[in-house]
Amino acid sequence: MAVNLKEKNAEELLTVDGVQVFVGQAGVKKTGHDDLTLIVLNRSNTVGAVFTQNRFCAAPVYIAKEHLANENGIRALVINTGNANAGTGMQGREDVLAVCRAAAEQVGCTPEQVLPFSTGVILEPLPAQKITAALPDVKPVHWDRAARAIMTTDTVPKAASREGRVGNSHTVRATGIAKGSGMICPNMATMLGFIVCDAKVSQPVLQMLTQEVADSSFNAITVDGDTSTNDSFVIVATGKNGQNEIDNIADPRYDQLKALLAGLALELAQAIVRDGEGATKFITIRVENAAGRAEARQVAYAVAHSPLVKTAFFASDPNLGRLLAAIGYAGLENFDTDKVRLWLDDVLVAENGGRADGYTEEQGQAVMNRAEITVRIDLQRGRECATVYTCDLSHEYVSINADYRS
Fold this sequence. Notes:
InterPro entries: Arg_biosynth_ArgJ, ArgJ-like_dom_sf, ArgJ_beta_C. Its EC number is 2.3.1.35, 2.3.1.1. The chain is an alpha+beta fold. The chain has eleven helices and 16 strands. It has a six-stranded mixed β-sheet with strand order 14-13-12-15-11-16. A five-stranded mixed β-sheet has the order 5-4-2-1-6, with helices on both faces. Helix 2 links the parallel strand 4 (76-83) and strand 5 (114-121). Helix 1 packs across helix 2 (89-107) and helix 2 (89-107) packs parallel to helix 3. It starts with 18 loop residues before the first strand and ends with a helix.
């Protein structure tokens, strides 16, 4: 069950000039629900994208990377669920290209102007003929339908919008959708994320912005520590809001736009954690006063990935020595454990190498009973910090993944 996560309705999601959204049923999913999404873009857009770090990346990831280098720009995104088209060899790539050709014919562009995305079961051939046959029948929809169409094991569709001032006289509209529930780990996981905005941004600058936004959102979440083969995050800028182009990161509007889109991306990323497979708790892990940001993230992920920590949260068990153990095996050099201070929400749990004076089991239990908990770790080694978002590990997680293909 999702933790404090509600489905957005159509009225809560902004339309963005220069973008059309379509969904359909290709029959790739066994459920008979929408499983095909086509996002059509205006001619003057720019696109930034980041992809999975998994070396066994899926066929659509290979092709999308190649197509991003196309000098004529991108005109469409085509997304199927139910099949990842990963571990499918050269035939998988041929199947992706067939889908791109069909989408291009419908949109009126070249196949190289189509970015393909897939999510679902790995090591099974993509039923490309089903997808190409269904593309002519996709119907125009609003973003709420598209968010639902890209779901796999998700229980709640994930969509959000933002609107804000960028520069002195222009407003930027942005809407995003995402999917993901399991195989979620830093450096992208089984997640797809798409944000469209009407700002005008040069492609090199948008690519840098996309990487920075991903780093503070989708690369700051973990559900189970598994990194998927298909993860992709895309930002599209249609240039339709009438502003002059942002073509330099020194432009003050760059930071304004980044803040707007980073907030949107973080909401989507946190929604993935809140909908983590079988999740009953949403956990924020904040590491403070580290010697460097990489060190702070190293400690945060050691805690977030610990099965013992995650199961303690599921059980609402204040067995908080598990947190200290995870911090201890994070691998920091010259690490003085006596300097570490540990809080659960506002309760000081440990300091000076042991239990904090005044801490009681009842205080810890009161916090562990909550649905949303913040773990704060002060290393007292420097001034850098990092925040990671995760969830607990429940019996339901095992059931969902044991029954995934049945």
